[in-house]
Amino acid sequence: MPQTIIADIDNALLAALDARAGLLTLRAILLRYKASGVTAAQVAALLQELRPATQEGPLEDVILDALDMVTGWCGPQLRVWGEAGDNRAS
């Protein structure tokens, strides 16, 4: 089991990843982390922890999509932690 940040949000994230949820669903969950004061680095670490078990499969693609929204490697409309200095993960 990966690290726990906020249990109910973690469970929602894991369920969304397993269901290969769409980008907007993933973003809504990531926004819940941000609203709860969780940093981008914490969420990025959780997602990175999940990756090894899913490498080179469809689930890894969903994890990478979520990671892109956390780190800012996506369009501005999907970015969760906004500008540099806004808890952006590196």
Described by the principal axes of the CA atoms, the overall outline is globular
Mean of pLDDT: 88
> What's the main sheet like?
none
Structural class: mainly alpha
Total count of helical runs of at least 4 residues: 4
Strand tally is 0
Helix and strand succession?
HHHH
Write down the Rg.
12 Å
- Provide the β-strand percentage band: under 5%
Helix content: 55-70%
**Low-confidence regions:** none
Architecture overview:
With 90 residues, the chain is mostly helical. 56% of the residues lie in helices and 0% in strands. It is built from four helices and no strands. The protein has helices at residues 7-18, 23-35, 40-50, 58-71. It is globular. The model has no long low-confidence stretch (mean pLDDT 88).
Summarize the structure.
The protein is an all-alpha fold and 90 residues long. 56% of the residues lie in helices and 0% in strands.
Give the tags.
56% helix; globular
SSE topology:
Blueprint: H1 7-18, H2 23-35, H3 40-50, H4 58-71
Helix pairs in contact: 1-2, 2-4, 3-4
